[in-house]
Specification:
six-stranded mixed β-barrel, 2 domains, alpha+beta, elongated, 13 helices
Length: 406
Amino acid sequence: MNFVNLFKIAFRALSGNKFRGFLTMLGIIIGVASVITMLAIGQGSKKSIQDQISTMGSNMINIRPGTGQFGGVRQSASSMQTLKLEDYEAIRDEAEYISAATPEVSSSGQVIYGANNSPTTVYGVAPSYLDIRKHTVAQGDMFTDAEVKTSAKVCLVGQTVVDNLFTNGEDPVGQTIRFNKIPFRIIGVLTSKGDNTMGMDQDDLIIAPYTTVQKRILAITYIQSIAVSAVSEDATEDAISSIEDLLRVRHKIGANDEDDFNVRSQKELISMMSSTTDMMTVLLACIAGISLLVGGIGIMNIMYVSVTERTREIGLRMSIGAKGRDILMQFLIEAILLSVTGGVIGVILGIGSAFAVKNIMAWPIDIQIYTIVLSFIVCTATGIFFGWYPAKKASYLDPIEALRYE
């Protein structure tokens, strides 16, 4: 069995029917290109989500009130008042693996400057909020602990608020705006962060001392949530355990009782979003993979036709000494050449399509080497699987009957 001669014979047979060979490969080409493009989009979306969540603080932990049940009616977390300022102070001073903490209270409403107004949200926080949420100040300064203690009416604004209110290009720092009739003096402007993975504008916000928002806007004594930054991403789970143990002791929660608070980390959000995008990627790849199945069926069909057309050739070769396994390998190599050649063209087309999607539609992509390797493996396997039976049929032909075939 001379593999070089078998490849030459297979190549010559395919060259004699170029257009038919191209049509046979078309299903493989479309299938491979679709799989690579879909996987590139799926992996790109996953990476984009992870990067954007990381910009929000990959080691951030959020503590919110839990749901409670009163008189058979389960209350929402927003209506619960189980987190107190003392809880924040205890977490800040006593919890382990914590680098920073801030209480959070918020209120939505209209912000007004002169004749301009816009709906937005004011967040009451501590100065450590910037480090935890990965915000930076582009202009001006952050408020101080002293201004928190005195409930000063000062604030920092996001770029969207600046664009909506200061339409004539005024310098916002030092200007006074009103939020729900409460005047605030702008002492800084936050660096723009754009939209997050959920399409929410991260620049449409005002941040002010939490004491100011508590007393002057919401008129409450409790806090709505606590944001915490672990010392590192790897220490997040240890930090969560420390916070949960501390709050259970402070809230006098028994071993078998339900917690009146919830602790969630960005790591959990990343994991959840990644699993969702992975599921969508697999689904898209499976849909695209149907083209590979169709392409494989096309190869089997054309190999059947080829065996029928070349029955006399097979008989002649077997009559001069060719064995059944030589005939088997000849047609199997033809099937593999069809699928692998289609795979090469499909990979090139898939990579080109992925970059076209990125440049034209501005979707994130991430082409992994394993997707290309997997495509070649699938192409080869498709050629072997769908070409085996026709090739086996050819190898079983009786030489005398084959020579008599018209």
